Amino acid sequence: MAVQGIRFSSIPRAILLQTHNPVAQLKQINRVELCILSRRQLTRSFWSLPFCDKFRCGELWSKQRSCIKMEGVGNASSNTSRAGSSGVEQRFTRHYNFETIVLEPKGEHLATIVWLHGFSDSGARWAKELKNMEGLSPNIKWIIPTAPLARDIPVTAWFELRYGQDVDMEGLNRSAETVANLLRNEKTEDRGSKNVKLAVGGFSQGCATALYITACSVLGKYGGTGKPFPVKLDAAIGLSGWMPTTKDFVSRMAGNRDASERAGKTSIFIGHCDDDGVVPARSAKTSSDAFRGVGFNDVTLKTYVNGGHSATNEEIADIQEWITTKLGLEKSRIPAQ
């Protein structure tokens, strides 16, 4: 993991494709040797692909599973059925076990933020960064879950990436429900304060999930089911990501006065680097325009120069200031570097 601010170019449970062109290889050969690496082993082979090729790898892998030989090691084994010595198909079944790390506030508890990592990453990596990050308000409790393994690719994902297909609403709603339960518990626990502010944020696919959860919050319902959403958010933060259900969200907000009123009370920060090669920078403007268009009056959109698919130092400093101001928190006694 290289840090320019925070850059997650290496992935915890990575797929090492034995080629410089994994998409072409999946198309051309009948058997692919794959290795699932442990958390401490790093690779750029998958993460360095363009965003659309990640979708294509997943799609092609799904089609080729009957002729893929897997060598599973480490943490992935509990969520998979191992291939036999003959190299027969190994299917990954999704288990919704959200391992969660909690960083308690160093001062008075005034806000709780659930933070969602990106595709193929882990909560532990973000927890380490947040724990050591200077400049954060001491009033924040951070809750940092890890997404379950994806169904077709043995990496963590909040929802399935489907190239050219409909959004995985089941995965989104499962993740949204998990976050809602984490935040709902904050309101029921006796912490000596009845005014704890609630927020959600995320990076990349975590950003997409966080923005979807924000939509559920103002609408008061999960998408596609009509099931009540139990939490009202005060703020949301989205970095280097996108809003996955824009058209449906805008349609459901039309003429909904209660939702528009809640939207007017919810603050959103959206940040993106202009040279992001994984999620196009235009996704940030598209998302912010959608939120503003349906009644979100407090949307901050910031673009950063030459950061790639990362959270830059400048962006981190902006977020720290934004969180402190919007949630009414104390400033850190230690300035951000």
Automatic annotation (TrEMBL):
Residues 101-325 form the Phospholipase/carboxylesterase/thioesterase domain. It holds the Pfam family Abhydrolase_2. InterPro entries: AB_hydrolase_fold (IPR029058), PLipase/COase/thioEstase (IPR003140). Gene3D superfamilies: alpha/beta hydrolase. GO terms for molecular function: hydrolase activity. This is Phospholipase/carboxylesterase/thioesterase domain-containing protein. It comes from Physcomitrium patens (Spreading-leaved earth moss). The gene is LOC112273934.
